[in-house]
Every structure is written in structure tokens, then in C-alpha cells.
Amino acid sequence: MPPLKKLHIGMSLAPTWLSGDAWRRPDSGVEGLYGSDLYLDIALRAEQAKLDFAFLPDSLFLNTTLLDSGTGFASLDPTLLLASIARETSRIGLLSTASTTFYPPYIVARQIQSLNWLSNGRAGWNIVTALDGNGNFGLSEMPSPEERYARAAEFTEVVRLLWESYPNEALKLDRESGRFADPSLVKVIDHEGAFFSVKGPLNLPRHGRVPIPLVQAGASDAGRAFAASVADAIFASTPDRSAAGDLRSDLRSRAEARGRRGDDIRLLPGLSLYLAPTRAEAQELFAETNARTSRERCLVTVHEMTGLDLSSWPADRPVRASDLPPPPEKVRSRTHSQLLRRMIERDEPTVEDLLRRPEVIGSAHWLVVGTPADAVAEIRDWATAGAIDGFVAFPGGSVESVRLFLEQVVPELSDLGLFRKDYAGATFFDHLSDN
Ligand SMILES: Cc1cc2nc3c(=O)[nH]c(=O)nc-3n(C[C@H](O)[C@H](O)[C@H](O)COP(=O)(O)O)c2cc1C
């Protein structure tokens, strides 16, 4: 058997280790939530563990109904926060998120290229079409998924053209001749499309020649088609190994159909980790963290995602495929609603089990509640089955989960030959290309 490829591992700075009731722990450091030290500390430790990248998701709205018990999605601007982390780190990739539905492409091209300069080639862009926030941008409702993806495709094309419009070679900085740059190499892009009209060039030269990695989140049919055409990686929710394996092979064949190599697109699912020295402690950590995730909220989630109203069903009644009404016309994320339907069709869980599944209480991410050794075994299993190219770690419950992941799980994966021992290159793209 050929040796297994090395995994690509990202560390979410989201910070999931404060979510649910975890922020109430005495050592949570929650007071630092809107500063940079909390995140910098984790990014430095992730760099010490030689991870590919630190990652920040983003949203552009405040969910005030959740604010009573948690952040309600409030966060620092991800690109600004990563810029402050860039100065203190030297090797780890920095993956920021920017929405193609709300921002203008010129601003995103400039922000991400700025992060690339500030980090010496370590920036990446997580392309999202967003789930909410239309009211903050003059839109009475969210555009349809089709329109959002059509806009995302044109947006991404414009950003790439802008990055090319002032190539690094144009920068001369020749003191002797007094030539600062060669304007003949700097080109307008004169883009006129269905959504954007952008003249260019970008008012910032490109940093070096290595590409800035593009990551895409959203795995409906339209999302996959878009990812397969441009993305270096897809960040996905895959709660079980077969969902990951199916998505990975589908993405590879879609990429090949577009003349790319299957290896050009890497599947990096989110991995939610509740870790403790013993399984019993890990279970307790998970239960304590999610204790206030109310049954009512889970019932609403199931209803919104599938159209099923379970509020009067007995807890032990199985939910079957035949109970599922046709999918609601409007769902926030088709990816998440499809994952939930798929799980019901396959497992026929009881109402009680359904309401405790990661697809309902979390973001439908792959979930490990156990010891560091359990996490290693599970990751090894998914990797040897060829279901993933890596993952993005979302440690939950407490900072202890972060520590156990970086200090025990990652080194063990390295010892097994599943992860690098040291960085081979200097840029984020180098890390993603290093197998
Ligand atoms: C794993 C995952 C992560 C996502 N992260 C974000 C995010 O950080 N910010 C955001 O605005 N939207 C995020 N989204 C939403 C997607 O960009 C997209 O708008 C949504 O999933 C609808 O697309 P779909 O129909 O392909 O699922 C995420 C979606 C998925 C599946």
C-alpha cells in the first residue's frame, strides 16, 4: 500500500472552546473575547504544533435572541484580527472569511492581499455566500442560493483578476535608476459582468508569486460546482465518514471534469473535539457545555431544516424517512438541511436521539467526545479510508480540549506519519501542497 498522504490541519480560532456554557468556567478567559491575546495564544501554540493554518469564520449580523446566554455570533473582524496575529507568528497560514454576498470584490481583494503582505505570504480566503445579515446591507431578503453562487463565481473571478493586475514583477524599487515600478506591467481589468463593474488595477502589488489559497464553505450542488471550479480546499460539515467519503470523491470527479487534478481540491471537514483524560470526563464536558441548549430550540431547528414538527411526538418514537415532508422551499443552508435528512433516512433515530445529534445541536460537524487516543483513532480511521484530506479542528467545552488536541493528538498523528513533523515551506500554499 502506498504511504498515506499527510493530512492538512487547520485550527479554528472561532472560539468554540467558549461556546455553550464553556465560557462560564473560571479559567475560560472570556473577558479577552474582544481582544487579540486570547487568539494569539492559541495561534502560537498551533504554529508550534506545525498546523497548516489558523482559521476564522465570520458573519455580519448579531443574533440578539442568543445574546442572553452566548456571543450571538458577535466577533472581531476576522481579517483585522489575523493581521494582528500575523505580526507575532512566522509560519502558520492565516485563513480569513469574507462574504461574496455583502462585500464589494475590490475591498476583499485588497484586504486579503494586505494580509498576505503583512504575513509574508501566509493569507488565505474562505469564500462564503453567507446565511444571514441581508438587513445590514440594504437587502429585504437573502438572495436565492443560485443568485448567491452566481455572484460568488463572478466575485472570485474579479478578485483573482485584481490580484494579477499589479503583478509583483512590476515592483522594481531600483534606487539607482529611480524606477519604483514598471507601469507597463500594471493592467486595468475593465470587468463588466452581471453583478460587478470594476475597472482596476488593484492599488496594491501582489505579494510574491505563490497563489493565495481559496477555501470554500457550502456543499449543496451549486456550492460543490463552484468549489470544484476554483477552490484549493472545501471546508465542510460531514458528521459521518461516509458523508465525507462521498463528498470527497464527488469533489474530485467534479474537479477532474473541469480539467483540474483531483488532488487540487482538498476536503477539510470541521472536527468538533470534546477531549479529556477519560471518556467519562469527556462525556461530562460535552453534557455540561450543552446543558442549556434547550429542547425547544432543537425542535425549532428540526422544523426549520426539514419541515417536521416534532413538538407533540413521544420522545421514544422513531423518526423515519417516510415521516419527512418535502424539503421546505426556503432553508438557511441546503447543505445542513440535506445532512439532517440524510441522517434521518439512514438511522431512523428516536425523537430524543435526533434532538441530541450534532446536525441539530451543533454545526453538523464530525464530533469526537473522548480521550486524545479516541480522537487519534477516529482521525486515523477516516484518513485510511480516504474520506478526508485533513480537517479544521474546533475544540469545544474548555481550553483543556485545545491543549489536549495540540499537545497530544497532533504529535501522535505526526508519529503515525499522518502529519508533518516540521514546516517544509514558508507560505500557506506551500503548506497545503506539502504531502
Ligand atoms: C461548513 C460551513 C461553514 C460555513 N461558514 C460560514 C461562515 O463562516 N460565514 C458565513 O457567512 N457563511 C458560512 N457558511 C454558509 C455558506 O457560505 C453558504 O452560504 C451556505 O452554506 C449556503 O450554501 P449551500 O446551499 O451550498 O449550503 C458556511 C457553510 C458551511 C457548510
Structure description:
With 435 residues, the chain is an alpha/beta fold. Strands 1-2-3-4-9-10-11-13 form an 8-stranded parallel β-barrel, surrounded by 8 helices. It has a two-stranded antiparallel sheet with strand order 5-6. The protein is globular. It starts with 7 loop residues before the first strand and ends with a helix. Bound molecules: flavin mononucleotide (FMN). Flavin mononucleotide binds next to strand 3, helix 5, strand 10 and helix 9.
Short key terms for the protein model shown above:
binds flavin mononucleotide, TIM Barrel, globular, single chain, 38% helix, Luciferase-like_sf, two-stranded antiparallel ribbon, 435 residues, flavoprotein, 8-stranded parallel β-barrel
Topology:
Layout: E1 8-12, H1 37-48, E2 53-55, H2 78-88, E3 93-99, H3 105-118, E4 123-128, H4 145-165, E5 171-174, E6 179-181, E7 191-192, E8 197-198, E9 214-217, H5 221-230, E10 233-236, H6 241-257, E11 266-275, H7 279-289, H8 295-306, H9 334-347, H10 351-354, H11 358-361, E12 366-370, H12 372-384, E13 390-395, H13 399-415, H14 428-433
Parallel strand pairs: 1-2, 1-13, 2-3, 3-4, 4-9, 9-10, 10-11, 11-12, 11-13
Antiparallel strand pairs: 5-6, 7-8
